Amino acid sequence: MSDAPAIDWTNPSKKPAPDPGPDPEPGPLYAVRKAVHPQRIDGPFRRFKWLVMLITLGIYYITPWIRWDRGPFAPDQAVLVDLANRRFYMFGVEIWPHEFYFVAGMLIMAGIGLFLVTSAVGRAWCGYSCPQTVWTDVFQHVDRFVDGDRNARMRLDAAPWGPAKIARRGFKWTIYLVISFWTGGAWIMYFADAPTLTVDFWTGQAAMVAYVTVAILTATTFILGGFLREQVCIYMCPWPRIQTAMLDEKSLIVTYKDWRGEQRGSVKKAAKNPERYGDCIDCNQCVAVCPTGVDIREGAQIGCITCGLCIDACDRVMAEVGRPRGLIDYATLEDCEHEAAGGNVRSIWKTLFRPRTLIYFSIWGAIGAALLFALGVRTHTELTVEHDRNPPFMLMSNGDVRNAFTVRIRNMESRPRDMKLEIGGLPDGLMWTDDTARADAARSIIRAVPADATQPVRVYVIAPSDTVTQNFTFTVTSQDEQSEQDAAEVRFESPEN
Amino acid sequence: MANKHQDAKRVDEPTGTEFVGHEWDGIEELDTPMPRWWLWSYYACIVWGIVYVILYPAWPLVEKGTEGVLGWTSRGQLAEAVEAAQLERAPVLAALSEIPTEQLTEYPERMRQAISGGEAAFKVNCVQCHGAGAAGSIGYPNLNDDDWLWGGDLKAIEVTLQHGIRWDGSDQTRISQMPAFGRDGILTREQITEVTSHILTFSGAEDVSPASLRGAELFEANCAVCHASNGTGLREFGAPNLADKIWLYGDKRSQIEGQIWAPQNGVMPGWQERLDPVTIKMLAAYVHSRGGGEAAPVAVSEPAPAEGASE
């Protein structure tokens, strides 16, 4: 196994030597991953990556702890997915299961948002804000903190196992585990009251599903972030493959400007023979800093998450050797061809604002506006009515016709409210419920509906024997200053047609 | 495909990988090795499979399958779930058994629980005759309406459920026997027609006629003792109200005449020995809740002497 030629899939430029023998050995059945040890780098893109990491991790860890007062009848957690009670709270918005279209709409917006970002700035999601990228970045900084920078880590990797290496590895993996546990632990806070859950979790009183979720997420974070890293992007994630179909010649991608860089050669060689050599001094800094271990000079590839760290590295080198920056840069294929043909560098704004990005943006914005509109006009009072199917109608002993309905009055406010249920149409119709007497039958009844609840009421509607089958309406009106209303049209069935 | 052997040696320039030799419309397959962790995931699956086969039922054999060391069965899982559900229901059932049936309406929460429990029991035991919506059919009473042969308050319904109607399995069963006026020669065919004419005037289905006036005398002599002179019936005997719009055996003249000639006397089994008292109580609550339930007679809620009076 150990003598099988290892193929470096993250760095296709290093090809295994072609087999010269007439009857070649069968190829390897699997490829060993070549570890990626990115070197420390500073620069505008690295600082932007820090900022995005700070914001995304900040949102992830802090959000469940934000409090939001909703009164005594609702939880005071700003963002809460209350699976047991089937409610989703997000600051001032509370979503019930039947309003799941809000969540569906947000997911569609997230999808189209990815299209928008991809068409405008390429794989920016992959490069900066994808959780796999963020956590890989965190773990790579742990590597750097424990084992030192690129060269020290490569030496340690190659070193035989001994007490010092075991101690270092043990320490590093412990830190991995702590971070992973924190990742899983923060996730469950979105599904229950965070302070209560924290206490319950540590006193062994939380639900089994909480412990299992934390265990699974700890394991996946530990494995995906600590060890698999860029292999997730290259082998597992569908998004890079989808993006290969989405990128076009007008998309911003990280590009090595080969017409300017080639022929590669050291500063000394270039000084002797300036005609022959380009700007690339072949220092390999762009490869050394790459978190996924690709060589950007090979061109656009699936392993490139366009994080721009090689741009930082190259710009720094170019500054040192006194050549203009941007040998590696964010550029579109079209602009590259334009520049290669001798044209001037074009403005980035033309890439950002072109029909394709504007169309995506308008679709994205339209869905967002529609959701906001729906959110603005929705009432917190709803009514659904279900007619008894068996029997559809009943004859009473005096010949009156009775229909039975299951009426559900929904009070979506976090306070108890009185609700008035009325019959509209059906001129001689009266109703009573299964907990009131027929003698009290009336055209309208008032029910006290608890806070944030649906109250099912069995309603009997009775009408004289000569009433024909006809439609009528139930109307519910909240008995408060909002006076919210909802209505449902139903059928009154009768033997008379 | 034919020149596979030669192609196998060809190497793809950008990746340095050999071709397998398969080609479709210019798209060629490379012999790309999979990553090592992928191989590990296969081994992990194999290990998982071996562990599963040891722990759980897996291999079908001639008589039965292998059982697995955990001893898990789907029937066992069902039994556990049923047991857990019963355990959960136990406090509710215990509380319901404490409450006298006629006072159930004073405990709205318990009443709701009884109704839903009764609904489930109704679907198992009662729908065969009374129908899924409890609407009955000819010969089988509709339990949704406000017409009760033997009483429609909770206690009366419970007694009917316990002992049945004309049920030889209980000596406390509700019993009454309407004579076969025609078959046994008590009334002639014309007399039955006349009595029917009179009966149909109670509910206004027919107007008073010479025939109905002749029938009125016959009714007074033969029927009023149970059905009362004005036809409103008598619950002590389960004698139906003939003055309303509800006809257990049909509202057509021929159906009514047939019932007088040779009546069908419906039988309902008593459930006392088949169902436990709480289930019967819940069934009573469910039937009572169907829209025709009556309030308990005042006598029932009064102390001892009235107790005897209501028997």
Automatic annotation (TrEMBL), chain A:
Query: From what superkingdom does this record's organism come?
Result: Bacteria
Residue ranges, compositional bias (Basic and acidic residues)? 488-497
Residues annotated as domain 4Fe-4S ferredoxin-type: 268-300
Q: Where is this region: Disordered?
A: 1-24, 478-497
Which Pfam family would be a valid example here? Fer4_18
- Enumerate the transmembrane spans: 48-66, 100-121, 173-192, 204-228, 358-377
- Alphabetically ordered keywords of this record: 4Fe-4S, Electron transport, Iron, Iron-sulfur, Membrane, Metal-binding, Transmembrane, Transmembrane helix, Transport
* Annotated InterPro entries: 4Fe4S_Fe-S-bd, 4Fe4S_Fe_S_CS, Cyt_c_oxidase_cbb3_FixG, Electron_Trans/Redox, FixG_C, Ig-like_fold
Instruction: List cellular component terms (GO).
Output: plasma membrane
Single Gene Ontology MF annotation = metal ion binding
Name used for this protein in its record: Cytochrome c oxidase accessory protein CcoG
TrEMBL record, chain B:
InterPro entries registered for this protein in UniProt? CcoP_N, CcoP_N_sf, Cyt_c-like_dom, Cyt_c-like_dom_sf, Cyt_C_IC, Cyt_c_oxidase_cbb3_su3, Cytochrome_c_Oxidase_Subunit
The biological process GO terms on file are:
oxidative phosphorylation; proton transmembrane transport
Q: In which pathway does it act?
A: Energy metabolism; oxidative phosphorylation
Q: Domain of life, per the record?
A: Bacteria
Residues where heme c 2 binds: 178, 223, 226-227
Q: Name the keywords, alphabetized.
A: Cell inner membrane, Cell membrane, Electron transport, Heme, Hydrogen ion transport, Ion transport, Iron, Membrane, Metal-binding, Oxidoreductase, Repeat, Respiratory chain, Transmembrane, Transmembrane helix, Transport
Q: Name one GO cellular component term.
A: plasma membrane
Q: Kindly list the residue ranges recorded as spanning the membrane.
A: 40-59
| Residues annotated as signal peptide | none
Known cofactor(s): heme c
| Chain positions recorded as heme c 1 binding sites | 126, 129-130, 268
List the molecular function annotations (GO) for this entry.
electron transfer activity; heme binding; iron ion binding; oxidoreductase activity
Instruction: Please share the entry's free-text remark on the cofactor.
Output: Binds 2 heme C groups per subunit.
Q: Where in the cell is it found?
A: Cell inner membrane
Q: Which residues form the Cytochrome c domain?
A: 113-203, 210-291
Q: How does it assemble?
A: Component of the cbb3-type cytochrome c oxidase.
Identify its protein family: Belongs to the CcoP / FixP family.
Q: Give the function comment from the record.
A: C-type cytochrome. Part of the cbb3-type cytochrome c oxidase complex.
Give the protein name, as stated in the record. Cbb3-type cytochrome c oxidase subunit
